[in-house]
Amino acid sequence: MTLPSAASPEYDTQAGRVSDAERERALEVLREGAALGRLSHDTFVRRMELALTARKRQELAALTADLRTEHRWTRLVLSTVGAVSGFGVKLRRAWQAEKLPKLLLPAPGAYPLRIGRDPANGLRLSHDTVSRVHAELIHQGGLWVLRDLGSTNGTTVNGRRVTGAAVVQAGDQVSFGHMAFCLAAA
């Protein structure tokens, strides 16, 4: 029986060492994982430190094992599907916006516009899904801010529920309970 010589390719003493290209590929997988939200900032920083000091390929493999990389075509297909599905939502929102009644934004500098069922509100909405004091619209720092005032059925802006306050502008769709409007400039 003959043993392989040190010069033969079967006896590679450098087989376990990490090349700069392998280290860079691992770092790129870590960067992508952090960008996609798969790693917290602290985990990302710690794994980067470990990747830079890794001496064996197995160490690099362990750092990226849970960050399955997607092929270029997979990313392209997924982003295309996301864009197409998002288009349907935008199309439906645009279609509905033309049908919605307009809610004129008050003149800047005026008092906050209170919205709700209570007759004392600046905008009274007589609907069962609207709270007595539902929301308020105020002009602050050059921006319009819509604030939900603890309503039962919620306030939404462009289909997203407002928790606290949200910046709005002309063209946005707002709803108070089941009553929806399209904001318009005065």
Question: Tags for this entry?
Answer:
186 residues, alpha+beta, Tumour Suppressor Smad4, 2 domains, five-stranded mixed sheet, 4 helices, 10 strands, DUF1707_SHOCT-like, phosphoprotein, Cell_Proc_Reg/RNA_Proc, FHA domain-containing protein
Overall CATH class of the largest domain: Mainly Beta
Task: Give the strand content.
Answer: 15-25%
Structural class: alpha+beta
Enter the CATH topology name of the largest domain: Tumour Suppressor Smad4
Q: Oligomer, anyone?
A: single chain
Question: What is the gyration radius calculated from CA atoms?
Answer: 29 Å
Number of domains: 2
Portion of residues within helices: 25-40%
Largest beta-sheet characterization: 5 strands, mixed
- On the 0 to 100 scale, the average pLDDT is 84
Q: Tell me, briefly, the overall form.
A: elongated
Number of strands: 10
Low-confidence stretches: 4-14
Distance between the termini: 94 Å
CATH architecture of the largest domain: Sandwich
N-to-C series of helices and strands: HHHHEEEEEEEEEE
Report the total helices.
Answer: 4
Strand order, largest beta sheet: 1-10-9-6-7
Describe the model:
- The protein is of the alpha+beta class and 186 residues long.
- It has two domains: 20-69; 102-185, Tumour Suppressor Smad4, CATH 2.60.200.20.
- Helix content is 35%, strand content 22%.
- It contains four helices and ten strands.
- The chain has helices at 20-35, 41-53, 57-64, 72-99; strands at 102-104, 113-116, 123-124, 135-140, 143-148, 155-157, 160-161, 165-168, 173-176, 179-184.
- The chain has a five-stranded mixed beta sheet with strand order 1-10-9-6-7, with helices on one face.
- A hairpin with a 2-residue loop joins strand 4 and strand 5.
- Helix 1 (20-35) runs antiparallel to helix 2 and helix 1 (20-35) packs parallel to helix 3.
- The longest helix has 28 residues, at 72-99.
- It is elongated, with a radius of gyration of 29 Å.
- The protein starts with 19 loop residues before the first helix and ends with a strand.
- This is FHA domain-containing protein.
- Residues 113-162 form the FHA domain.
